[in-house]
């Protein structure tokens, strides 16, 4: 097949320097290929190494943002490649495909002709294909007496093959960026989890330190970890979280001490079930309370505490909380710890949780969290809701049994 092509477009499309240079570049590349071709031992010409069209398309799909190509433009190129009979593309040979507009539309699942023309123009402007227009602008093929293609008019895929190395290099850069992005996303997620749980443990264990300020820093760095965030932004966030994590862990470890135990473990569990356990320093809290508030808490909290149902009843009515327990819920202590882990997930601040534990007692606060978890889809602001319940409990107007009964009736 002899290549005799016009460089000017058919019809109303104007010729421009970019298009002319694209034709000239392809002509020069083919000429250089012929001049620099090597001879093998049997004196046969060694041609350019063919490329797998589908591997090349995959690489271009990965690197499409570098060339500002939309997914639909890639789809149009895929269909053009599907019209070439061979899997391998050899840039030294003519690579003309000549599908009709109707056939293109069929393979593109009914894409309109104007949309197809727009995406074809994008591919031409990007230098991945060339137009080989016939005298009348139609796409067709002329064959010789032996049935071989003598002349074809349509779209030339050769420029794509000459840019295969460039496309693969761009695709590898994108893959590297994606790997780095994924590693940063993993690191950010782990930092957020570890910082949150360390602060929660410090608050539950009443460790000294400005944990509220550290929690505020965590909140500023929290939020959804973007799947397609830039490497630069993710790196900045990961670095900030890494520094915050070091501060939190160092502060936590600086105050590690053996927990005070009153009697054996069984006595401790019995104490949890029958008293208003506090997870903070009662002495310091008492200094900041006025007598009226203190009297309210002493009268209301024990009354509420005594109305707490059995643990088995709570777990039967609120089964979801068991899924968040690290080692199951065997006693009240496990329930309290699990509720503390759930608290950040519901958007409840440490101060709201601490106040609920102080006024309701840790057990009733934990039961309240369990009931809120069951109805999380119906609660707009869990933090505000818990504060309202805490205020009602302080006035002696809230206990958990009616809530549990209502949940039980709903499920049955």
Total domain modules: 3
Main sheet specs: 4 strands, antiparallel
Total number of beta strands: 8
Instruction: Show unreliable segments.
Output: 38-47, 258-307
InterPro entries: RepABC_RepC, RepC_C, RepC_N, WH-like_DNA-bd_sf, WH_DNA-bd_sf
Organism: Pseudochrobactrum kiredjianiae
Protein name: Plasmid replication protein RepC
Short description:
Residues 273-287 have a biased composition (Polar residues). 59% of the residues lie in helices and 6% in strands.
Question: Could you explain the architecture of this structure?
Answer:
The chain is 59% helix and 6% strand. The protein is α+β, with helices and mostly antiparallel strands and 412 residues long. The strands form three sheets. Strands 5, 6, 7 and 8 form a four-stranded antiparallel β-sheet that branches. Strand 1 and strand 2 form a beta hairpin. Helix 3 packs across helix 5 and helix 8 packs antiparallel against helix 9 (231-254). The model is unreliable at 38-47 and 258-307 (pLDDT under 50).
Indicate the topology.
Layout: H1 17-35, E1 38-39, E2 45-46, E3 51-52, H2 53-62, H3 71-82, E4 88-89, E5 96-97, H4 101-107, H5 113-125, E6 130-132, E7 140-143, E8 149-156, H6 158-162, H7 164-204, H8 211-221, H9 231-254, H10 265-274, H11 282-288, H12 291-306, H13 311-317, H14 332-345, H15 350-360, H16 362-374, H17 382-394, H18 400-411
Antiparallel strand pairs: 1-2, 3-4, 5-8, 6-8, 7-8
Helix pairs in contact: 2-3, 2-7, 3-5, 7-8, 7-9, 7-14, 8-9, 14-16, 15-16, 15-17, 16-18
């Amino acid at each position: 097949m002899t290549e005799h092509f016009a460089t000017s477009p058919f019809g109303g499309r104007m010729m421009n320097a970019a298009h002319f240079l694209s034709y000239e570049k392809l002509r020069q590349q083919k000429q250089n290929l012929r001049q620099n071709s090597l001879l093998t031992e049997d004196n046969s010409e060694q041609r350019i190494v063919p490329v797998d069209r589908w591997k090349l398309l995959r690489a271009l799909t990965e690197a499409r943002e570098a060339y500002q190509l939309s997914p639909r433009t890639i789809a149009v190129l895929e269909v053009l490649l599907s019209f070439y009979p061979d899997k391998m593309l050899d840039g030294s040979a003519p690579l003309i495909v000549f599908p009709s507009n109707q056939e293109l539309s069929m393979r593109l699942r009914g894409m309109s002709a104007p949309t197809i023309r727009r995406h074809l123009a994008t591919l031409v402007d990007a230098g991945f294909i060339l137009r080989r227009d016939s005298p009348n602008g139609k796409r067709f093929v002329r064959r010789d007496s032996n049935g071989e293609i003598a002349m074809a008019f349509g779209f030339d895929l050769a420029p794509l093959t000459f840019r295969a190395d460039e496309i693969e290099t761009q695709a590898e850069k994108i893959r590297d960026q994606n790997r780095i992005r994924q590693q940063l996303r993993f690191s950010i997620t782990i930092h957020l989890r570890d910082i949150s749980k360390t602060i929660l443990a410090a608050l539950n264990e009443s460790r000294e330190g400005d944990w509220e300020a550290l929690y505020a820093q965590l909140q500023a760095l929290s939020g959804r970890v973007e799947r397609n965030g830039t490497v630069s932004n993710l790196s900045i966030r990961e670095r900030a979280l890494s520094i915050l994590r070091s501060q939190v862990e160092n502060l936590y470890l600086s105050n590690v001490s053996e927990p005070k135990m009153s009697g054996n473990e069984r006595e401790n569990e019995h104490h949890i079930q029958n008293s208003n356990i506090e997870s903070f320093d009662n002495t310091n809290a008492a200094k900041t309370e006025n007598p009226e508030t203190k009297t309210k808490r002493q009268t209301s909290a024990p009354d509420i505490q005594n109305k707490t149902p059995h643990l088995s009843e709570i777990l039967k009515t609120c089964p979801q909380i068991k899924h968040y327990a690290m080692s199951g819920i065997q006693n009240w202590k496990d329930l309290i710890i699990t509720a503390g882990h759930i608290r950040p997930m519901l958007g409840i601040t440490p101060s709201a949780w601490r106040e609920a534990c102080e006024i309701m007692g840790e057990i009733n606060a934990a039961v309240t969290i369990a009931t809120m978890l069951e109805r999380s889809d119906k609660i707009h602001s869990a933090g505000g809701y818990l504060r309202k319940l805490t205020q009602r409990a302080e006035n002696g107007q809230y206990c958990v049994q009616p809530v549990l009964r209502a949940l039980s009736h709903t499920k049955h």
